[in-house]
Write a structure and sequence with these properties.
single chain, alpha/beta, seven-stranded parallel sheet, 46% helix, globular
Length: 439
């Protein structure tokens, strides 16, 4: 089975190689490490925990887990890996001084995986949000490591896709010691794929444990000073947007702007993928020229007209969670197209009124809880143009402060009621790391 898997992985890699060359800034980052060429890791007798975080979302979610792992297991060392360049940049920034090594995850070939595992020799491997890499899991288990999925999430769509390979998945999942899942639905789905019931548990979503104390106050102060944001400005953040969503958000903003000319509105757009920053910047410039608005860009050098910017492109990594603190409304992207949505938990932790589109199947359980508690507003897919729905909702939330306050209060309450996932996760991991168990 693993030989066939390696062959298919190699064929896929060859087919993707033109894309690697064309977009090498994104795909070539960490290439040497991903082939198994890592800096030598000097062992000192302490056991090693390897935490894999994939990209920015998983890296952010791992913040409270990293802190509790360090507190609960001070005699262990921590290696953190990511797959993407943006995830690596964020991990290097937020886990500096907390992790003993921050590296790229190896390509899932036998030679690269064996080099990685031979260098770091982990006793415990933690895979964030159901990152299933068959060869890595197989080789880590053969090397004596315990393996756990943490903050596991499995959408219905992913479950259907994995179900087509159920016999393979059953073999891979046999090497997983624990699957610590976010919700009951996630657990039911991974049980369908073949993991045994005694190894799968619901621990909750780590992102509920995000603290608003993690906001970088100096970053926020610099941002609001530069772009002229104060209490007189109504600030809208469009977060984690995908292609085509910026257009409808700009249209909605234009409508609200024209209806309330006496108020200063600012729109901050933060695209989900950095490789789209330049295209979104061009889109915003054209739009601002057409609508006689002013445009600002976070990555630019300071400009004299920055305080007058109506639309600001947030083309930076790792700053959005702090900038949420200045928002009056947050629009969460990935939900106005059939992508499945992005997480609402970071703005909710700061008590922000949240607007989302109808496509949220990646976070169905979280969205269900928020809707039941009237903690966000979701549009439907009934044919009503999204830009009109957005402009109507933004206008309503602007005009009715008490409505904003209700959403804010409800969002904070939901976050507080669902905290504790990190503590439960660490509790399940302790037997895997306790020397008395022989691990």
């Amino acid at each position: 089975m693993y030989s066939i898997y390696s062959l298919l992985l190699t064929l896929g890699f060859l087919l993707m190689s033109p894309l690697f060359l064309l977009r090498r800034e994104k795909y070539a980052s960490g290439f040497k490490q991903r082939l198994g060429n890592y800096p030598q890791f000097i062992h000192d007798g302490r056991k090693v925990i390897w935490l894999h975080c994939v990209s920015v979302g998983e890296t952010n979610a791992a913040r409270p887990l990293v802190d509790q792992l360090r507190d609960a297991f001070p005699d262990h060392r921590l290696v953190i890996s990511t797959t993407t360049k943006t995830g690596q940049e964020l991990a290097q920034k937020i886990f500096a001084g907390k992790a003993d090594a921050i590296v790229y995850f190896p390509f899932d070939w036998k030679f690269s995986v064996r080099r990685a595992l031979g260098n770091y020799k982990p006793s415990l491997v933690l895979l964030m949000e159901t990152e299933i890499w068959p060869r890595f899991i197989r080789e880590a288990k053969r090397n004596g490591a315990n393996i756990s999925i943490v903050n596991g999430r499995l959408s219905e769509r992913s479950c259907r896709r994995y179900s087509r390979l159920r016999s393979i998945m059953r073999t891979v999942l046999a090497d997983i010691d624990l699957a610590l899942m976010q919700a009951e639905l996630d657990t039911k789905r991974i049980l369908k794929l073949g993991i045994s019931e005694n190894r799968s548990h619901v621990t909750g979503n780590l992102k509920f444990d995000i603290s608003d104390s993690e906001v970088d106050a100096s970053l926020v102060e610099d941002f609001v000073r530069r772009f002229g944001i104060d209490d007189r400005v109504f600030t809208i953040i469009a977060a984690s947007t995908h292609q085509t969503e910026e257009t409808l958000i700009l249209e909605a903003y234009s409508k609200v702007y024209s209806l309330n000319s006496a108020t200063k509105f600012k729109l901050i757009i933060a695209p989900r993928h950095p490789e789209r920053f330049a295209n979104v910047a061009d889109l915003c410039r054209v739009f601002c020229t057409k609508e006689r608005l002013k445009f600002g860009q976070r990555s630019d050098l300071l400009q004299p007209n920055d305080p007058e910017a109506d639309i600001i492109l947030m083309d930076s990594i790792g700053e959005l969670r702090s900038i949420y603190s200045i928002a009056n409304i947050v629009i969460v992207g990935g939900s106005f197209i059939p992508h499945g949505g992005q997480s609402v938990l970071e703005p909710a932790s700061l008590g922000k009124p949240i607007l989302i589109g109808p496509h949220t199947h990646n976070f169905d359980e979280v969205i269900r809880v928020f809707l039941e508690n009237k903690a966000l507003v979701q549009g439907d897919d009934s044919g009503f143009p999204h830009s009109k729905w957005l402009s109507s909702e933004i206008d309503s939330l602007f005009r009715f402060e008490e409505r904003r306050d209700r959403l804010s209060t409800n969002a904070r309450r939901v976050m507080n009621e669902h905290r504790g996932a990190t503590e439960r996760t660490v509790g399940f991991l302790k037997p895997l790391l306790d020397p008395k168990t022989g691990s």
